[in-house]
């Protein structure tokens, strides 16, 4: 191989492949190569290390040989790997999104596989590529579902579906039971309380102060219900008709209990994953923000202005399309500090809260220091000064 003087300082292009590592000069000539063992697992291990910006023994050997030959600048199509080479091996590198040698190599690989690798047929190469791709896909999916973020996201989705389902079922059950006791629908707004009355008490004649007290309904509401039950104008349901409605109400209560269990589960996860955010806004709203953003790390990378309106994307797009006023808040409107603020101050409160959440998220991801209590106190102090 021709030795090149250092005065020329040529570039060499390092191209990664499932077959190995290939080095090309600026004229697209193959200069050197190191082939991987033709084993899918071994190939996958090396590819994933390089993708993560970590050097391998093969890469170090290739770079050493090229350096001894006289090449001085190593061009990569992998930004993280380029940076690692400079830091670990103290070699000058350059990064480019794509290179001519790399493009040409990939285009010709199927046609001239025998030039680069001791394979008999192109079919063998395709089979190897398929196996490697399958293993890499499994590894990436496994990494994606590591940690608590995916668990929180899935739990939040289930809670949202439960809310929709229980709301629809409760409304239908109210309509059904109102055939017998229509006045109760007006007196009791809370779905869960209503379902408990239907399931555990039954017909209007069974509504007494004692039976209502057993399900924690106190005076004066219990007195109004008992009075209404005695004067109800509804039709009388008996036997199987009433039992079906009661069974339906009991099933809905089970869904409410399941939702509470999921809320407790989500709270335990968020307190471990994002204690600073939880200290500022509580576990459920924390979980919703993590779910909406796609993970805690993504939430931490967002500017506070985006956190402020997250969840109000439809209103934002409508404002951009029509020229209407953009939304001042999204999901964080659910926080008491925002929705209980005077209407003219909600935008300012939402902006202050979003700023604190941005700091809290970065602390949870990067420093791991607990500063949530201080952030909450500072937030409440700033809001008091708005008044």
Task: Please give a structural write-up.
- By secondary structure, the protein is an alpha/beta fold.
- The chain has 3 domains: 11-144, 2-Layer Sandwich (Nucleotidyltransferase, domain 5), CATH 3.30.420; 151-262, Orthogonal Bundle (Helix Hairpins), CATH 1.10.287; 279-386, Serum Albumin, Chain A, Domain 1 (Orthogonal Bundle).
- 64% of the residues lie in helices and 6% in strands.
- It contains 20 helices and 5 strands.
- It has helices at 40-51, 57-69, 79-89, 100-108, 113-116, 122-144, 149-177, 182-187, 191-200, 209-214, 221-230, 239-273, 275-281, 283-293, 296-300, 304-309, 313-322, 336-339, 346-367, 372-386, and strands spanning 11-16, 20-24, 30-35, 73-76, 93-95.
- A 5-stranded mixed sheet has the order 3-2-1-4-5, with helices on both faces.
- A hairpin with a 3-residue loop joins strand 1 (11-16) and strand 2.
- The radius of gyration is 32 Å and the shape is elongated.
- Residues 1-7 have low confidence and may be disordered.
